[in-house]
Design a protein that fits this description.
By secondary structure, the chain is of the alpha/beta class. The chain has eleven helices and twelve strands. The strands form three sheets. Strands 5-4-3-6-7-8-9-12 form an eight-stranded mixed sheet, sandwiched between helices. It has a two-stranded antiparallel ribbon with strand order 1-2. A two-stranded antiparallel sheet has the order 10-11. Strand 6, helix 5 and strand 7 form a beta-alpha-beta unit. The termini are far apart. It binds NADP nicotinamide-adenine-dinucleotide phosphate. Its EC number is 1.3.1.33.
């Protein structure tokens, strides 16, 4: 088979697998009890009689940790959300191993976070694990209170918003504690609140950076975002304008589509970074960045996919599109955006090894180039026109204040008036 033919066959397989299994009789429930091992799971329809409404939501915060005996010294304080798996875990590992950072692993499952740190031999006194359930705005607020108690007057220097869910197979939306569709709540709104509650603290730090992980899937100018349906599209933000709560599942106000909800949330992540940069970079000095790590085809992000897909997908991305990157290398990429002096430039969407606007081509050394996969150099990537839509970004940002319940008093006062924005 020629390369082109195999591309088409595998592409077709992938599209079918992405779209075909969306009718399984599963119901997703938000379960955010501190006694649960994990916060979200699926139950077969047959078990619906368990009355999901009675399952407790996020109940109470942990007792605040205090810095106590930990000597941070000259190390910088970094919060990494979703540090219990995949990209976040590997980023935390890279930062811990550099010896330059004290890492706060912000995770929904504290026991899992601790087990990960132990398994990967994070040195004692180089990290702590704190509860953060992004599907609960109250939990985000409790996390910020705990973080402030933990670090005392020392400002936070780095914030990495990495955690996410991808729910392409769910036929019906699941809802966060606050009544928002789960991918929008976890990927966008929880992080939006977290960033905004920490801006005033971070602006006190020298060289502070805030990174929100983006994706090509939200960028329609790429193969993954432009050719694989559904495409990200926030429409006219009708869902958000109507309050964005149950039964409204999509920010464009249309019918629920789990794969699209993920892509829409990634667009919002990238728009949030652009808007944070325009509104607050000059006045706070904080560097705001987004990045595309490459296709980390083996992470738990694809947990809803069938086993055969999870076996084929990494091979497809490695040998056909050239977009594949391993977890460790992807984590090093994210850590680079946190640490590398060249990444002190604000408002940038960082990528490596090409913009993934075509499938990769093999270079003279036999390695795929151009599709964002393993290897290559870091560069300032171009976002799609949709992501760069300034009016849409401003509107989305302002509506997110309301949806995330951020009061006027809580907004940083350092931002310029909207018409003075960069
Ligand atoms: N994988 C890729 O190919 C790819 C490509 C582009 C961008 N990305 C982005 O990379 C980031 C990390 O994804 P990944 O591939 O590393 O996936 P992953 O292995 O599934 O990691 C996601 C992390 O988010 C956490 N999380 C999920 N729901 C949460 C909630 N309600 N509250 C708090 N934390 C929650 C998970 O916690 P648990 O450990 O408890 O499950 C996990 O630690 C995401 O932003 C994703 O959009 C991934």
């Amino acid at each position: 088979m020629t390369l082109m033919k195999s591309v088409f066959v595998l592409l077709a397989l992938l599209v079918v697998s992405t779209r075909a299994f969306t009718v399984l009789p599963l119901t997703r429930v938000s379960y955010i009890s501190k006694t649960a091992a994990s916060s979200a799971f699926t139950v077969p329809t047959a078990l619906k009689s368990l009355e999901v409404a009675e399952i407790p939501s996020y109940e109470s915060k942990e007792s605040p940790k205090v810095l106590g005996g930990i000597k941070i010294g000259l190390r910088k304080l970094v919060v990494v959300t979703g540090a219990s798996s995949g990209l976040g875990r590997e980023c935390a590992r890279s930062l811990v191993n550099s010896g330059k950072y004290f890492v706060i692993m912000a995770v929904r499952d504290v026991d899992k976070g601790k087990a990960v740190a132990k398994k990967f031999n994070f040195p004692e006194n180089s990290y702590t694990v704190m509860k953060l359930e992004l599907a609960s705005l109250q939990s985000v607020r409790d996390f910020v209170a705990n973080l402030k108690a933990f670090k005392s007057a020392r400002p936070l220097t780095h914030l990495v918003c990495n955690a996410a869910v991808y729910l392409p197979k769910d036929p019906k939306p699941s809802w966060s504690d606050d009544g928002y569709e789960m991918s929008m709540a976890v990927n966008h709104l929880g992080h939006f609140l977290l960033v905004n509650l920490l801006l005033d603290d971070m602006k006190k730090a020298k060289g502070a950076r805030c990174v929100i992980v983006g994706s090509i899937t939200g960028n329609t100018n790429t193969v993954g975002g432009g050719l694989v349906y559904p495409k990200a599209d926030l429409g006219k933000l009708k869902g958000m304008e109507s309050g964005g709560k149950q039964p409204i599942a999509m920010m464009d106000g249309k019918n629920y589509d789990g794969a699209k909800a993920y892509k829409d949330s990634k667009v919002m992540n990238m728009m949030t970074v652009s808007e944070l940069h325009r509104r607050y970079h000059k006045s706070t000095g904080i560097t705001f960045s987004s990045m595309y790590p490459g296709c980390i085809a083996e992470t738990q992000l694809f947990r809803e996919k069938r086993q055969w897909f999870r076996k084929i997908f990494p091979l497809f991305m490695k040998y056909v599109t050239g977009g594949y990157v391993g977890e460790q290398e992807a984590g090093e990429r994210l850590a680079q955006v946190v640490d590398d002096p060249i990444c002190s430039k604000s408002g940038v969407y960082w990528s490596w090894n090409g913009g993934a606007q075509t499938v990769g081509r093999y270079d003279a050394s036999g390695k795929p180039k151009g599709a964002g996969g393993s290897g290559g150099e870091i560069f300032e990537n171009q976002q799609s026109d949709a992501v760069q839509d300034r009016d849409m970004a401003m509107r989305m940002f302002d509506l997110s204040f309301d949806l995330a319940g951020i009061s006027e008093k809580e907004k940083t006062k350092d931002g310029p008036e909207p018409d003075n924005m960069l």
